[in-house]
Each structure stands twice: as C-alpha cells, then as structure tokens.
Amino acid sequence: MSTSTDDAADDAADDLAGPWPPETDLPQVGYQDPPDHLEAYWLYGYDPAARVGHYLYLAGEKGDGDPRRESLFLLLPDGSVLAQGGSGGNSHGRTAAGDRLQLECLEPFRRWRGRYAGPVHRLAGHEIVAGPKPGSDLVDAAVQLEVEQVAAPWNTEGDWGELPPSLRYHQFYRAAGTVEVGGESYSFAGPGFRSHSRRTRDQSGFTGHAIINGLFPSGRGFGLLRYRATMSRPERGRGFLYVDGVLHDADVVRFPYLSQAVNGGEQLTIELRAAGHHAVIAVETLASTFVTPSPEGRRYGAHPGGPGTVISPSFARYTWDGETGYGGLERSALRTAVTVPC
Fold first, then answer.
1. Residue 65 has what pLDDT?
2. What residues make up the domain containing 338?
3. CATH assignment at residue 268
4. Among residues 240, 43, 239, which one has the least CA distance to residue 143?
5. Cβ–Cβ < 8 Å for 264, 283
6. Which of 180, 202, 224 delimits the end of a domain?
7. Strand ranges (DSSP E) for 90-166?
8. pTM for the model
C-alpha cells in the first residue's frame, strides 16, 4: 500500500523524467539501438565561487556499440585548462566509459557521477588559443563529481530536429566534486547541465553550431541549440526559457557566432522569445578553450584558416533582468570563419 509520501516521491521522479521512461536514461552497453544511432552523454558546468569549470563528454563511435570517444576540459582557478581526449570501450552496467572517462547513472534523470584519472595537457596563457608547445609534458590529473538534476529535461530535438526514435535532451543540475592535479586539490560545486542523445548525427555540410545553457540563483534558466546555415539548409534550432518551474520552447532571435579565438572577455547577447516571455541576456565569456578536429586527430588550439572546424567550449556569466547566472557556452565554426586577434 503506497503512502502519500511515496506518491509524492513518485510524482517528483516523474517530473524530473519528463515524457521518457527511466530506462531511456541508461547507457546502451554492447549494442546500438537503432543500429545507426550514436549515443552521447555530457556534463558541463561552472562554479563561480571556486572558479572551476568542468566539461566531460562521451560519444559513441560508428560501427560498434562499445567504443566511446571522450573529451575532457577542466578550468582551474588560475585560468589554466586541463584538456584530454581519447577513445575506448570500457562501458559496463550503468556506466558509459571511454578510455579513462566514466559517466555513471546513479538514478535515471536524477543523479549521475563522472570520473576521470589520467594524463592531461595543462594549457595556460597563449597555449589555450595556439595549442601546446611541441614536446610539452603531460601531467596527471583526476576529477570526480556527482550531479543532481533540478529540472525536467528539455526535449532538444522537439518538432524540428531528428524524429523518433532519435532523442536528445538537456537537463539542469547542481554539481559537487573535486579536481586534483600537481599536488593541489580543488573542490567545486555550482550549476550545470547534462545532455543525453541517440541520433544519426548527420554532419553533412556542417558549418557551425551553438549549445548554450545558463542557470540562475532564483531557479530560472535558459538554453538553446542552434546550427548555422549550410549550402542546402537555413539556420535552424531553437531554445527554451525555464521560468517558475516550467519549460517554455523559445524562438532564437539572436545568438553569438564563433568568429574569433580569444580565451575570454567576449561581450555577447542572446535573445529568446517564448509564449508570454521575452529574454535579452547579456553574456561574458569567462574562459574559452579550443580544439580542432582533423584526420590526424584532435589538436588543441584554434588553428584557423584550414579545412574543417574549430570547436570552442567556454564558461560564461549571464545577466538576465539584473540577475547573474552561470553555465556552459559551446560554439563551433569553419576554420576559415575564425580569426585570432593580434
């Protein structure tokens, strides 16, 4: 016999899962269903008090259900960035894992844990934009964090993206964790968002994107996913406003393109319109990192001017009607569209 307390707990769990059953949130281990859909998980947040940012990403690779490509960026209080990538097939149980990065589902749609331990690049100053010096030594680092979701997931694909059975959702959380490197330990907390997707990931003609999320002390927040126009497709994507515990799909009126490679200090604007709501959000990038994928592998730094794209994960401060919040701001652009200011 259930009690009112049990019913309330079940209702809260349902609220945090949105329209998806709990098993949707669990990683597919050893298989891909549908076979041509690639699964990805992402934790991305920033603690303004500790000045520590985290970005942990795992994506499935074509042709196999196990290997996952991993990407790690950690911002430290001194402004340096720990960065590393890799690939591996160590997923098991409720844990999606690449080579050294693990993302574990503790409770679907409610709690996740992230871990990494291994060698990383430590980038500082000019190296963040230019990339590490040839022959630079790697340093050992470790991060562990737990995140607890604080809002229902936003259906990112909605009625404009890939149709079911494809899925992608973003969900706000509060994090707590530690980073250890060079004999120092940094504790952090703060807001962030997680993403889970299973998609075909058709990247033909890709010219750039933006994925941006921010959470505020009052509990409200916003986010957007936007793809830049290609030769065959107009600009597309949408956003959301989270107000009074309700997610509102929003039109993206303005969002910032990636056009220059600087490691922070950009002043940008986001404008979103939803039914009954209009938000103009001032943005300041606190720290930006850069990675340039290539057939030879990932290169840290912007490296503008050649073929392919530049991806820039950033950590940002947002101001919305006088309230200040924080979050992740990732953008990409063609290398030919990015400049490095003198």
1. 61
2. 203-342
3. 2.40.370
4. 43
5. no
6. 202
7. 95-97, 102-107, 111-123, 139-149, 154-155
8. 0.94
